[in-house]
Sequence to fold (290 residues):
Amino acid sequence: MKAVEIKQLTKFYKKSRGIEDVSFSIDQGEIFGFIGPNGAGKSTTIRTLLNFIFPTSGSAAIFGKDIVSETKEIKKMVGYLPSEVHYYDDMRALDLLTYSAKFQQYAHTQRIQELAERLQLDLHKKIEDLSFGNRKKVGIIQALLHEPKLLILDEPTSGLDPLMQHTFFELLREANQNGATIFFSSHILSEVQKMCDRVAIIKEGKIVQIDHVEALTKNNFKKVKLVLPDHEADNLSLEGIIQQQKQGDQLTLLYNGHMKDLMIRLAEMDVKDILIEEPSLEEVFMHYYE
Ligand SMILES: Nc1ncnc2c1ncn2[C@@H]1O[C@H](COP(=O)(O)OP(=O)(O)OP(=O)(O)O)[C@@H](O)[C@H]1O
Fold:
Protein backbone atom coordinates (compact mmCIF):
# COMPACT_ATOMS: atom_id res chain seq x y z
CA MET A 1 0.00 0.00 0.00
CA LYS A 2 1.23 3.48 -0.87
CA ALA A 3 1.45 6.19 1.76
CA VAL A 4 -0.06 8.64 -0.73
CA GLU A 5 -1.65 7.84 -4.07
CA ILE A 6 -2.96 10.70 -6.17
CA LYS A 7 -4.87 10.03 -9.38
CA GLN A 8 -5.67 12.79 -11.87
CA LEU A 9 -6.50 15.19 -9.07
CA THR A 10 -7.92 18.48 -10.33
CA LYS A 11 -9.04 21.53 -8.40
CA PHE A 12 -10.53 24.64 -9.94
CA TYR A 13 -11.44 27.67 -7.82
CA LYS A 14 -14.54 28.63 -9.80
CA LYS A 15 -12.93 29.22 -13.17
CA SER A 16 -9.37 29.71 -12.02
CA ARG A 17 -6.90 26.84 -12.10
CA GLY A 18 -5.57 25.42 -8.86
CA ILE A 19 -4.17 22.06 -10.00
CA GLU A 20 -4.88 20.00 -13.09
CA ASP A 21 -4.60 16.27 -13.60
CA VAL A 22 -2.02 15.74 -10.84
CA SER A 23 -0.96 12.10 -10.40
CA PHE A 24 1.85 10.67 -8.30
CA SER A 25 2.38 8.33 -5.40
CA ILE A 26 4.62 8.25 -2.36
CA ASP A 27 5.94 4.99 -0.90
CA GLN A 28 5.78 4.31 2.80
CA GLY A 29 8.96 5.50 4.49
CA GLU A 30 9.91 7.88 1.69
CA ILE A 31 10.92 11.51 2.09
CA PHE A 32 9.23 13.05 -0.93
CA GLY A 33 9.86 16.60 -2.08
CA PHE A 34 7.27 18.76 -3.80
CA ILE A 35 8.69 21.82 -5.47
CA GLY A 36 7.44 24.60 -7.67
CA PRO A 37 7.36 28.39 -7.82
CA ASN A 38 4.75 30.60 -6.15
CA GLY A 39 1.26 29.82 -7.34
CA ALA A 40 2.24 26.47 -8.90
CA GLY A 41 -0.32 24.51 -6.87
CA LYS A 42 1.60 23.01 -3.93
CA SER A 43 -0.73 24.27 -1.19
CA THR A 44 -3.81 23.46 -3.28
CA THR A 45 -2.61 19.84 -3.58
CA ILE A 46 -1.96 19.64 0.16
CA ARG A 47 -5.23 21.31 1.15
CA THR A 48 -7.13 18.91 -1.11
CA LEU A 49 -5.34 15.90 0.40
CA LEU A 50 -6.37 17.09 3.86
CA ASN A 51 -9.97 17.68 2.75
CA PHE A 52 -9.88 21.40 3.55
CA ILE A 53 -11.09 21.89 -0.02
CA PHE A 54 -12.90 19.46 -2.31
CA PRO A 55 -11.40 18.17 -5.53
CA THR A 56 -13.15 19.18 -8.75
CA SER A 57 -12.30 15.76 -10.17
CA GLY A 58 -9.90 12.87 -9.67
CA SER A 59 -9.17 11.06 -6.43
CA ALA A 60 -6.48 10.41 -3.84
CA ALA A 61 -5.89 8.03 -0.97
CA ILE A 62 -3.65 8.18 2.09
CA PHE A 63 -2.64 4.75 3.40
CA GLY A 64 -5.48 3.37 1.28
CA LYS A 65 -8.12 5.71 2.74
CA ASP A 66 -10.06 8.02 0.47
CA ILE A 67 -9.28 11.70 1.08
CA VAL A 68 -12.94 12.75 0.96
CA SER A 69 -14.96 9.93 2.52
CA GLU A 70 -12.37 8.73 5.05
CA THR A 71 -10.79 12.01 6.08
CA LYS A 72 -11.45 11.41 9.79
CA GLU A 73 -9.28 8.27 9.81
CA ILE A 74 -6.67 10.09 7.73
CA LYS A 75 -6.39 13.00 10.19
CA LYS A 76 -5.34 10.58 12.95
CA MET A 77 -2.45 9.32 10.84
CA VAL A 78 -1.24 12.69 9.57
CA GLY A 79 0.82 15.47 11.11
CA TYR A 80 0.40 18.71 9.17
CA LEU A 81 2.50 21.84 9.31
CA PRO A 82 0.86 24.70 7.37
CA SER A 83 3.00 27.33 5.70
CA GLU A 84 1.50 29.98 7.97
CA VAL A 85 0.63 29.02 11.51
CA HIS A 86 -2.50 30.66 12.96
CA TYR A 87 -3.53 29.95 16.52
CA TYR A 88 -5.59 31.34 19.37
CA ASP A 89 -3.28 34.21 20.27
CA ASP A 90 -4.39 34.45 23.84
CA MET A 91 -3.32 30.93 24.82
CA ARG A 92 0.08 29.93 26.16
CA ALA A 93 2.05 27.64 23.82
CA LEU A 94 1.95 24.88 26.45
CA ASP A 95 -1.83 25.06 26.87
CA LEU A 96 -2.39 25.01 23.15
CA LEU A 97 -0.17 21.96 22.69
CA THR A 98 -1.67 20.14 25.67
CA TYR A 99 -5.15 20.86 24.30
CA SER A 100 -4.08 19.65 20.88
CA ALA A 101 -2.56 16.46 22.37
CA LYS A 102 -5.82 15.73 24.20
CA PHE A 103 -7.71 16.26 20.98
CA GLN A 104 -5.50 13.64 19.38
CA GLN A 105 -6.14 11.41 22.42
CA TYR A 106 -2.49 11.60 23.36
CA ALA A 107 -1.37 12.73 26.78
CA HIS A 108 2.19 13.51 25.82
CA THR A 109 3.31 16.16 28.28
CA GLN A 110 6.81 14.75 28.35
CA ARG A 111 7.09 14.73 24.56
CA ILE A 112 5.91 18.37 24.40
CA GLN A 113 8.63 19.35 26.89
CA GLU A 114 11.27 17.33 25.06
CA LEU A 115 10.47 18.84 21.65
CA ALA A 116 10.24 22.37 23.08
CA GLU A 117 13.66 21.92 24.67
CA ARG A 118 15.23 20.76 21.43
CA LEU A 119 13.65 23.64 19.51
CA GLN A 120 14.40 26.11 22.31
CA LEU A 121 10.79 27.23 22.59
CA ASP A 122 9.51 28.92 25.73
CA LEU A 123 6.23 27.10 26.31
CA HIS A 124 5.03 29.58 28.91
CA LYS A 125 4.75 32.51 26.53
CA LYS A 126 1.43 33.47 24.99
CA ILE A 127 1.16 32.73 21.28
CA GLU A 128 0.61 36.45 20.55
CA ASP A 129 3.98 37.23 22.16
CA LEU A 130 5.88 34.73 20.03
CA SER A 131 7.85 35.70 16.92
CA PHE A 132 6.97 34.19 13.53
CA GLY A 133 9.76 31.62 13.86
CA ASN A 134 8.72 30.65 17.38
CA ARG A 135 5.10 30.21 16.26
CA LYS A 136 6.43 27.93 13.58
CA LYS A 137 8.07 25.85 16.31
CA VAL A 138 4.67 25.47 17.99
CA GLY A 139 3.37 24.19 14.63
CA ILE A 140 6.30 21.77 14.31
CA ILE A 141 5.68 20.35 17.79
CA GLN A 142 1.98 20.02 17.06
CA ALA A 143 2.70 18.18 13.79
CA LEU A 144 5.20 15.78 15.39
CA LEU A 145 3.44 15.26 18.70
CA HIS A 146 1.28 12.25 17.97
CA GLU A 147 4.06 10.48 16.05
CA PRO A 148 2.08 10.43 12.79
CA LYS A 149 2.65 7.89 10.02
CA LEU A 150 2.66 10.70 7.46
CA LEU A 151 4.02 14.20 7.91
CA ILE A 152 2.80 16.83 5.45
CA LEU A 153 4.96 19.92 5.61
CA ASP A 154 4.16 23.07 3.65
CA GLU A 155 7.20 25.39 3.45
CA PRO A 156 8.35 24.10 6.84
CA THR A 157 11.56 26.06 7.35
CA SER A 158 10.39 29.60 6.63
CA GLY A 159 11.07 31.71 9.69
CA LEU A 160 13.52 29.26 11.31
CA ASP A 161 17.10 30.38 11.85
CA PRO A 162 19.86 28.09 10.48
CA LEU A 163 20.49 26.40 13.83
CA MET A 164 16.79 25.64 14.25
CA GLN A 165 16.56 24.42 10.66
CA HIS A 166 19.31 21.96 11.53
CA THR A 167 17.43 20.76 14.62
CA PHE A 168 14.23 20.53 12.63
CA PHE A 169 15.90 18.36 9.96
CA GLU A 170 17.28 16.14 12.74
CA LEU A 171 13.76 15.71 14.13
CA LEU A 172 12.47 14.83 10.67
CA ARG A 173 15.21 12.26 10.13
CA GLU A 174 14.41 10.69 13.49
CA ALA A 175 10.69 10.55 12.64
CA ASN A 176 11.58 9.00 9.29
CA GLN A 177 13.86 6.41 10.93
CA ASN A 178 10.93 5.53 13.19
CA GLY A 179 8.85 4.83 10.10
CA ALA A 180 7.20 8.15 9.21
CA THR A 181 6.68 9.04 5.57
CA ILE A 182 7.39 12.69 4.82
CA PHE A 183 5.78 14.88 2.16
CA PHE A 184 7.90 18.00 2.00
CA SER A 185 6.68 20.97 0.00
CA SER A 186 9.18 23.75 -0.56
CA HIS A 187 10.63 26.21 -3.01
CA ILE A 188 14.03 26.05 -1.31
CA LEU A 189 15.77 23.59 -3.55
CA SER A 190 18.90 23.05 -1.50
CA GLU A 191 16.85 21.70 1.42
CA VAL A 192 14.84 19.43 -0.87
CA GLN A 193 18.11 18.17 -2.33
CA LYS A 194 19.49 17.54 1.15
CA MET A 195 16.41 15.85 2.62
CA CYS A 196 14.43 14.09 -0.09
CA ASP A 197 14.68 10.76 -1.90
CA ARG A 198 12.39 11.69 -4.77
CA VAL A 199 10.87 14.92 -5.93
CA ALA A 200 7.88 16.02 -8.00
CA ILE A 201 8.12 19.35 -9.78
CA ILE A 202 4.85 21.23 -10.29
CA LYS A 203 4.43 24.09 -12.72
CA GLU A 204 1.24 26.05 -13.46
CA GLY A 205 -0.86 23.38 -11.75
CA LYS A 206 0.64 20.41 -13.60
CA ILE A 207 3.36 17.92 -12.69
CA VAL A 208 6.26 18.41 -15.08
CA GLN A 209 8.75 15.92 -13.65
CA ILE A 210 9.00 13.20 -11.00
CA ASP A 211 12.32 11.56 -10.31
CA HIS A 212 14.92 10.65 -7.73
CA VAL A 213 16.79 13.75 -6.61
CA GLU A 214 20.03 12.03 -7.52
CA ALA A 215 18.83 11.19 -11.03
CA LEU A 216 17.65 14.74 -11.60
CA THR A 217 21.00 16.19 -10.74
CA LYS A 218 23.36 13.43 -11.90
CA ASN A 219 22.14 11.68 -15.00
CA ASN A 220 20.98 14.30 -17.38
CA PHE A 221 22.90 17.47 -16.79
CA LYS A 222 26.48 18.57 -16.34
CA LYS A 223 27.75 21.95 -15.37
CA VAL A 224 30.84 22.79 -17.42
CA LYS A 225 33.08 25.68 -16.42
CA LEU A 226 35.59 26.79 -19.03
CA VAL A 227 38.33 29.35 -18.66
CA LEU A 228 38.94 30.90 -22.07
CA PRO A 229 41.45 33.44 -23.41
CA ASP A 230 40.15 36.78 -24.73
CA HIS A 231 40.25 35.79 -28.37
CA GLU A 232 37.67 32.99 -27.87
CA ALA A 233 34.01 33.81 -28.56
CA ASP A 234 31.75 34.77 -25.66
CA ASN A 235 29.40 31.91 -26.35
CA LEU A 236 29.41 28.41 -27.69
CA SER A 237 26.96 26.94 -30.11
CA LEU A 238 26.41 23.20 -29.69
CA GLU A 239 23.31 21.03 -29.41
CA GLY A 240 22.76 20.08 -25.77
CA ILE A 241 23.77 23.43 -24.29
CA ILE A 242 20.75 24.43 -22.24
CA GLN A 243 22.15 27.60 -20.80
CA GLN A 244 25.39 29.57 -20.85
CA GLN A 245 26.78 32.47 -18.97
CA LYS A 246 30.03 34.44 -19.40
CA GLN A 247 31.67 36.10 -16.43
CA GLY A 248 35.15 37.54 -16.93
CA ASP A 249 37.20 34.83 -18.61
CA GLN A 250 34.88 32.06 -17.38
CA LEU A 251 32.12 30.55 -19.51
CA THR A 252 29.68 28.32 -17.60
CA LEU A 253 27.46 25.89 -19.48
CA LEU A 254 24.54 23.71 -18.44
CA TYR A 255 24.85 20.77 -20.81
CA ASN A 256 22.81 17.64 -21.39
CA GLY A 257 24.14 16.49 -24.74
CA HIS A 258 26.68 13.75 -25.51
CA MET A 259 29.99 14.20 -23.74
CA LYS A 260 31.87 13.16 -26.85
CA ASP A 261 30.32 15.98 -28.91
CA LEU A 262 31.34 18.47 -26.27
CA MET A 263 34.90 17.10 -26.16
CA ILE A 264 35.23 17.37 -29.95
CA ARG A 265 33.96 20.95 -29.86
CA LEU A 266 36.28 21.91 -27.01
CA ALA A 267 39.28 20.31 -28.72
CA GLU A 268 38.90 22.93 -31.48
CA MET A 269 39.16 25.71 -28.93
CA ASP A 270 41.90 27.29 -26.90
CA VAL A 271 40.64 26.16 -23.48
CA LYS A 272 42.87 27.28 -20.57
CA ASP A 273 41.05 25.31 -17.88
CA ILE A 274 37.98 23.13 -17.50
CA LEU A 275 35.86 21.90 -14.61
CA ILE A 276 32.92 19.51 -15.10
CA GLU A 277 30.62 19.05 -12.13
CA GLU A 278 27.09 17.97 -11.14
CA PRO A 279 24.71 20.91 -11.17
CA SER A 280 22.72 21.63 -8.04
CA LEU A 281 19.03 20.81 -8.08
CA GLU A 282 18.47 24.54 -8.27
CA GLU A 283 20.40 24.84 -11.52
CA VAL A 284 18.50 21.92 -13.04
CA PHE A 285 15.21 23.14 -11.66
CA MET A 286 15.55 26.66 -13.03
CA HIS A 287 15.83 25.09 -16.45
CA TYR A 288 12.33 23.63 -16.11
CA TYR A 289 10.92 27.09 -15.62
CA GLU A 290 12.37 28.83 -18.61
N1 LIG B 1 -8.82 30.39 -2.46
C1 LIG B 1 -8.45 30.56 -3.73
N2 LIG B 1 -9.28 31.15 -4.62
C2 LIG B 1 -8.92 31.32 -5.93
N3 LIG B 1 -7.74 30.93 -6.44
C3 LIG B 1 -6.87 30.33 -5.59
C4 LIG B 1 -7.17 30.13 -4.19
N4 LIG B 1 -6.10 29.52 -3.61
C5 LIG B 1 -5.18 29.35 -4.59
N5 LIG B 1 -5.63 29.83 -5.77
C6 LIG B 1 -4.92 29.82 -7.05
O1 LIG B 1 -4.49 28.51 -7.31
C7 LIG B 1 -3.17 28.50 -7.89
C8 LIG B 1 -2.25 27.62 -7.03
O2 LIG B 1 -2.03 28.26 -5.78
P1 LIG B 1 -1.31 27.56 -4.55
O3 LIG B 1 -1.49 28.43 -3.36
O4 LIG B 1 -1.75 26.15 -4.47
O5 LIG B 1 0.22 27.59 -5.04
P2 LIG B 1 1.56 27.26 -4.23
O6 LIG B 1 2.38 26.41 -5.15
O7 LIG B 1 1.25 26.74 -2.89
O8 LIG B 1 2.22 28.70 -4.15
P3 LIG B 1 3.09 29.41 -2.97
O9 LIG B 1 4.47 28.85 -3.09
O10 LIG B 1 3.02 30.84 -3.37
O11 LIG B 1 2.40 29.11 -1.66
C9 LIG B 1 -2.73 29.94 -7.98
O12 LIG B 1 -2.96 30.39 -9.28
C10 LIG B 1 -3.64 30.66 -7.01
O13 LIG B 1 -3.89 31.98 -7.42
The radius of gyration is 23 Å.
